[in-house]
Specification:
Number of domains: 2
Strand content: 15-25%
CATH architecture of the largest domain: 3-Layer(aba) Sandwich
Number of strands: 10
Order of helices and strands: HEHEEHEEHHEHEHEEHEH
Oligomer: single chain
Distance between the termini: 24 Å
CATH superfamily of the largest domain: von Willebrand factor, type A domain
Radius of gyration: 22 Å
Strand order of the largest sheet: 5-4-3-6-7-10
Largest sheet: 6 strands, mixed
């Protein structure tokens, strides 16, 4: 079956029914990518002070307000309630390198699908959602807000830039991943969840620096989109490959296949280690499997 080349708004709207059974919050099912203290430092929405009350047997002594206790001459504790809002900013790559797929869907399609699922899920739990959708020629910013209207704006931009990839003359320009991250820094000042959806094409040392800056006051998660053919390729006599106007013959033999796989694993390993050191979860997303199944497997309960 040929890979799905593009998505339209109707397809992204239908994903609303699938956006359940997973969460970005720290309390995760066993086996979730975000479960456990070593995999992630995602902080959730945070805590807001609710009331000061008398200490009751069994209360956590760490919640005792010692100043109030001294002033009132009896033990008092501070009670906190979970804040009901954590804005989510989706940074979604729709550049030409994303317009590739050997099975089920293009990388650009998988990126749009996971962003749509995240947007619908964010609205469902009562948080604000926004996004930065970009290609080589433009960077479209939708600031986080509540309500279906905001989600529609975001999905419209996802579909629009996704479909531009199939035009006879794809967008050209100087917008790259780092420009999108710089834009995210202007929007996500603090206490946001920033979800970066990209194949990491063109990522460099500056990318790591920008991710670090984003992570100082926000939670950051990277969804690394890949295609199986980009991870493992066996050459054959007469096989040719092309990329951005260049064309060359693919060498045949086990040596090329081994070197190709090693190059992919080295690249992925570099970013996996970097983001692990920054305590930023990296979620590998394959084009070959339905996106919702992968989201359920890594961020929630199995179907």
């Amino acid at each position: 079956m040929p890979a799905r080349a593009t998505v339209d708004l109707d397809h992204l709207l239908l994903l609303k029914a699938e956006a359940r059974g997973f969460s970005f919050l720290p309390r995760q099912p066993v086996g979730s990518l975000l479960a456990g203290r070593h995999q992630s430092r995602l902080r959730g929405r945070g805590l807001a002070f609710e009331e000061l009350r008398h200490y009751h047997p069994g209360d956590d002594i760490r919640t005792i307000d010692w100043r109030a206790t001294a002033r009132l001459r009896s033990p008092h504790v501070r009670v906190f309630a979970e804040e009901r809002e954590r804005p989510v900013l989706l940074v979604v790559d729709q550049r030409f390198p994303m317009f590739f797929g050997s099975r089920r869907a293009m990388k650009s399609v998988a990126a749009a699908e996971v962003a749509a699922l995240a947007a619908w899920r964010t609205l469902d739990v009562g948080d604000r959602v926004g996004g930065i959708v970009f290609n080589e020629a433009e960077l479209s910013t939708i600031r986080p807000n509540r309500g279906p209207t905001q989600a529609l704006r975001l999905l419209h931009e996802l579909a629009r830039l996704n479909q531009r990839l199939a035009e006879p003359e794809p967008p050209v320009g100087g917008v790259g991943l780092n420009a999108a991250l710089e834009g995210a820094l202007q929007v996500a000042k603090h206490d946001h969840l920033v979800v970066i959806v990209t194949d990491l094409d063109g990522a460099d040392d500056t990318t790591g620096e920008l991710a670090t800056r984003l992570g100082i006051h926000n939670d950051v998660m990277v969804v690394a989109v890949y295609d199986p053919l980009g991870a493992q390729l066996a050459g054959a006599p007469g096989m040719r490959a092309s990329d951005r106007g260049r064309s060359w013959e693919v060498p045949a033999g086990a040596g090329f296949e081994k070197a190709f796989r090693a190059a992919f694993e080295d690249l992925l390993g570099h970013w996996r280690h970097l983001f692990r050191d920054l305590r930023i979860p990296l979620f590998p997303l394959s084009t070959a499997t339905p996106v919702i199944d992968q989201v359920h497997e890594l961020l929630g309960a199995h179907r």
